[in-house]
Amino acid sequence: MPEGDTVFRAVHRLRTALAGKTLSDSDFRIPRYATTDLSGARVESVRSVGKHLFIDLLRPSGIPVSIHSHLMMEGLWDVHTIGAKWRRPWHTARVVLRAGDIEAVGFDLGVLELLADPGPAVAHLGPDLLGDDWDAARAVENLAAAPDTPIGIALLDQRSLAGVGNVYRSELCFMRRVHPATPTAAVDLPPLVDLAHRLLTANRLRVTRVTTGATGRGRELWVYGRDRRPCRRCGTAVERGMLGEPPAERSIYVCPRCQTR
Ligand SMILES: [Zn+2]
């Protein structure tokens, strides 16, 4: 699942390519919007809220409409000049937007819909780690409201705070030396939430996600994806487990020595 910083980068690319421009063509490749034509609409803004991505448009008629998308597991927004080779097969494209010589293609989007009012789509989300209105105190409060939930599950709940995905939950628990199965009530939340904010902010425009401070290839992360390899702190073999509520069980990586229950 993409993390908040992945979505932020996608927004940055789309904004640079499309903001302020008028769409010359749109091609929705899902039945519901097969006949939708957004040509002539002006791109007012491109923004993310947590992992939700919005392209806000003003139609020639003066009526606003927002393209709401969510990358879910496999989604990708790509931007290139018209005629360039696509990064994924054409049949995985869900929407193509063109403006001048620029083409933005949304592949395998988990959510793709047009909304007259985009507000309700994200009303359930907690404070956005990369939002201008980030509110650490409220995120802590939200997490604390479910004291029995293991922290490794609580961190993925976008209703508490928006932006943490599977990579960050492993890294955050390791860096705070907390076992992910620890009930949230037993975790010192403010420093954890603060760390999440700092990590996502530091990575928001980086191509490669780094939590260790070392940008060398293979050195970027503490534990994620490193099962059976030595912990960077103590040398103990990192373990991979599953943590989540079925069917959303996801891999989690733990150093059994650094992270005690
Ligand atoms: Zn260790």
UniProtKB/TrEMBL annotation:
It is an enzyme of class 4 (lyase). Keywords: DNA damage, DNA repair, DNA-binding, Glycosidase, Hydrolase, Lyase, Metal-binding, Multifunctional enzyme, Zinc, Zinc-finger. Its EC number is 4.2.99.18. SMART domains: Fapy_DNA_glyco, H2TH. The keyword Acyltransferase does not apply. InterPro entries: FPG_cat, FPG_N, H2TH_FPG, Nei2_N, Ribosomal_uS13-like_H2TH, Znf_DNA_glyclase/AP_lyase. Pfam families: Fapy_DNA_glyco, H2TH. GO terms for molecular function: class I DNA-(apurinic or apyrimidinic site) endonuclease activity; damaged DNA binding; oxidized pyrimidine nucleobase lesion DNA N-glycosylase activity; zinc ion binding. It comes from the Bacteria. Belongs to the FPG family. PANTHER family: ENDONUCLEASE 8. This is DNA-(apurinic or apyrimidinic site) lyase. It comes from Gordonia sihwensis NBRC 108236. The lineage of its organism: Bacteria, Bacillati, Actinomycetota, Actinomycetes, Mycobacteriales.
